[in-house]
Amino acid sequence: MEQSLKKHPRIDVADVLRGFAVMGIILLHSIEHFNFYWFPDPATRSTFLRFCDKAIWDGMFFLFGGKGYAIFALLFGFSFFIMDDNERRRGGDFRLRFCWRMVLLFVIGNLNAAFFTGEVLVLYSLVGFILPLVCRFKDRTLFILACILLIQPVALYYVLRAATDASFVTPAIPSGALWGAAGEMQNGGTFLQMVRVNLWQGQLASLAWAWDNARVFQTAALFIFGLLIGRRGLFLEEKHYAWGHILAVGLIAFFPLYGLSNLLPGYIENRNVLRPLLLIINSLHKFAFMLILVSGIIFAFYDTKMKKSLMGLAPYGRMSLTNYVTQSIVGSALYYHWGLFLRLGTTESLALGIVLFVLQLAFCRWWMKSHTHGPLEYVWKRLTWLGSGRNAIQK
Fold it and tell me: What is the DSSP letter of 394?
C-alpha cells in the first residue's frame, strides 16, 4: 500500500529539457526585440556585422524557431501526467483541480502579456483543458488523436477545398490593426498605455496569430504526446533507448519535409492552396526537428559524460515559469519606449540575450540552494491546492 501511494520521483532530464527550451525562447525573443521589429539600417553597419546579423537570425530560427516552444509544450503535458498520476495514487482525481490550475495560468499569462504580446501562457491555459478531457483514454486512442491534431485538420480542409474549388479563399483572421496598435505602444507609448493595449489588442493579435499559424492544434497534440511520454516512462533512464527509434523517425521525416517547405513555393501558384499546405509541412518539420533535439539531449544525458554539465540547466528548468515571465518584463523594459528603448542589431541583441540568460541561470542556482520551487512556481502550486487542506509544497 505504501508503494502504491509513493509519488513519482523528480525526473532530472525533464528539468534539463525545460531549461534548454526556455533558454532557446529567451535568446529568440531577444533577437526579435520581444516582437518589436526595429533594426538599424543595414547601410550603417559593417559588412562583417551584416553577415553576423544574417547568420545569427537564420541560425537561431532554424535551431529554436517553433522548437523551444514545442519542447515546452511537450513537457507541459508530461507535467500534467505526473500531477494527475500522483493524485490517482492517493485515491483522488486531479482533473477539476487542473482546470482551476488553468484558470490560474490564464491570470499569470495575462500578467506576462501585459509586458509582451508574443507570450504563450494564455494559449496554454486555454488549450490545456483538453488534457482532463482525454487523460483517461487508452494510449492508442491518445496517439491517434494527437496525430490527427498534428496534421492540422483545419488547414488540411483548406488545402482540399482550395484545390477543388477555384473560388475558395483561405480565411485568415484580420489582425493587422491589432498588431499595429501594439506596435504603436511599443514605439511611443507610456507604460500604462502599453499595458492597456497589450491586454486587449495585443492578446487578441497573439491568439489570432496562433490560430493562423497552426499553433492551436499543434499545442494540443504536443500536450497529448507529453502525457503519453509520462505514461510510458520514456524519460526514465531504463526506457531512454526508445528515443533511438524516435530519433530515427525525426531524422527520416525532417529532411524531406524541410526540403518540401522550400521547394513548394516555386511550384504551387495558387496561394489558397500553398499557404495552408506550408502551414502543415512547416508544423511537421519543426515537430520532427524537435524530436531530434529532445532525443539528442536525452542520449547525451544518459549515455555520455555530459550529464553533470547538462544538470547545470536543471535549476533553470525547475524555475521555467519564473524565468519565462521575468524575461518578458526585462525584455520589454530594455526594448520598448516606456523603458530604455535600446536600438540594437541582431548580433548585439543575441549577446544581450546571452547575458540575461546567464544572470537568470545564476539566480536560479542560488535560489534553488535554499528553496524547492521558484517564486512563481511556489505561488502557482500553493493556489492550485487552495482549499484542499494540504501543504501544497509537499505535494
Answer: G
d(CA 334, CA 168): 44
Angle, in degrees to the nearest 10, between helices 12-31 and 68-89: 150
Residues 13-46 as b or e (16 or more Cβ within 10 Å = b): bbbbbbbbbbbbbbbbbbbbbbbbeebeeeeebe
Cβ count near 247 (within 10 Å) = 18
Q: Cα separations (Å) of 195 from 36, 111, 200? A: 15, 9, 9
| pTM, two decimal places | 0.95
Distance of CA 95 to the CA centre of its chain: 23
Exposed / middle / buried, residue 192 (Cβ in 10 Å: 0-12, 13-18, 19+): exposed
CB 119 within 8 Å of CB 113: yes
Q: How many CB atoms lie within 10 A of CB 70?
A: 26
Crossing angle (nearest 10°) for helices 95-113 and 375-384: 140
Alpha carbons 329 and 321: distance in angstroms, whole number: 13
Nearest alpha carbon to residue 92 among 390, 393, 394: 390
pLDDT one-digit tens code per residue, 8-47: 778 999 999 999 999 999 999 999 999 999 999 999 999 9
Residues 6+ apart with CB under 8 A from 290: 66, 67, 70, 71, 74, 250
Separation of alpha carbons 39 and 31, rounded Å: 10
**Quick one: cell of 190?**
507610456
- Each residue's pLDDT tens digit, 291-350: 999 999 999 999 888 999 999 999 999 999 999 999 999 999 999 999 999 999 999 999
